[in-house]
Amino acid sequence: MPTSHFSSFVDIPVPSLPFLFSQRATWLYTTAALVGALLVLEQSIYRYKKKHLPGAAWTIPIIGKFADSMKPTMENYMAQWNSGELSAVSVFNIFIVMASSNHYSRKILNTPTHAEPCLVNSAKHILMPDNWVFLTGKEHIEYRRILNTLFTKKALSIYIGVQDAITRKHFRQWLADAAKDPSPKPIMMTARNLNMDASVRVFCGNHIPESGVVEISEKYWDITQALQLVNFPFAFPGTNVYKAIQARKAAFKWLEMAAAKAKIAIASGAQPHCMLDEWVQVLQDPTYKGRKDFSDREMAMVVFSFLFASQDAMSSGLIYGFQHLSDHPEILAKIREEQYRVRGNDINKPITLEMLESMPYLKAFVKESLRVKPPVTMVPYRATKPFPLSDNYTAPAGSMVIPSFYNSLHDPEVFPDHDSLTPERWLDPNSPANANPKNYLVFGSGPHRCIGIEYATMNMALVLATASILMDWEHHQTAESDKVEIIATLFPKDGCQLKFTPRPRPQSA
């Protein structure tokens, strides 16, 4: 019997080495053929979507222009915009149509039936998918109508007082720090901290303690870094998107608490001293006929969206405002003359809305500074259906369509000597700049145009006006002063290195 069993094992066929190698080779060939087919399909789809548009003839497999997008430069953006009024690019198989002309940019911005804002790929993860900024159509119009009540002249007159007090507090600290160390320092983070402090206090007042303001300010930088055009698409621990989500959770804790406290304060008869207070009071007004059931979380989401919309863009505008004034002393001198005249040489007098209306040169400078260096150069939209952008090109549904603002703001026919800083162009009612308002896309256009334009320009004007009478500053020029760093918005690559000293009071004060 044992012999019989042994014989049965001997009879089992054993694969030969050539057969094993043949199986492995077949698997490798099959895998290679499949991968090759997928790559060919990827290129074919890209070329089919691209059609005749300018852009790379072939896209880098899988990642496309991901490497360029991780380190964006104005030079690369300009090259893309200058390649055609419409051009194509692909990043991680996201097909993108870039619009560079005013006509096509405005068409995207003003066609909500075919495109909706998608900001950046990570935006819904960070801002929350049910945030009002992602609403479209009638629902968006109704929501925006409610929020418009937060930017009336009555509301702005409350905010400007808060901004003035916060600005002066920070300037005192800037001068104290400069007295200890008079060497030039980058103002990128100090200006950002001023702006965040002012924004949180305007929106939430004293309903958030100082520790909460500090935590929001410190962690918000993680949100800024995650809101660049392209980021690693998954929220794995350690990624920018993951850190931004944790920062949002920390901010929401304080913002929801502020909303709850505002409701209690107004119910007890307090007068509004911040945006949340104003909002609650509006809702309680018997003449108000709109929606009234806003939860603490929903109000926190709105305030968070305002921080997102204002923080980086306003910081960019402020920093370039300081740099522009330092590099153009003749403009700074005119602003100072206007300030002393309107304030009656009283540098301690808080600025008011009425005073701002009497400062046309300051307002012209702010408008021009934002034109020359717009904080935001583009805003991504997503085509919700096939979008006929031109007579011979339709952007596919699901593709990203991105209107750019920079070319419209530097159109030489509308802005002669377009790279020069010339506030006077806005003081002449018959100038090409004033005759072509459609080119001024700093705040976008269409149904999603920035809702806080007056607030943003008021803040920038107030800070620079107050700085002009309280301080002198020198710009330390470096090799990177005129180079641009893109971190969601535009910043001087060297952080704008300035040296501050106290400014003497006017003699007649």
UniProtKB/TrEMBL annotation:
Molecular function (Gene Ontology), one example: monooxygenase activity
Q: Which domain of life is it from?
A: Eukaryota
- Which residues of the sequence carry a binding annotation for heme? 450
User: Is DNA repair there in the keyword field?
Assistant: no
**Chloroplast as a keyword?**
no
CDD domains per UniProt: CYP61_CYP710 (cd11082)
Q: Which PROSITE patterns match?
A: CYTOCHROME_P450
**Keyword annotations for this protein?**
Heme, Iron, Metal-binding, Monooxygenase, Oxidoreductase
User: Which family does the similarity line name?
Assistant: Belongs to the cytochrome P450 family.
**What is this protein identified as?**
Cytochrome P450 sterol C22-desaturase
Its source organism is Pisolithus tinctorius Marx 270
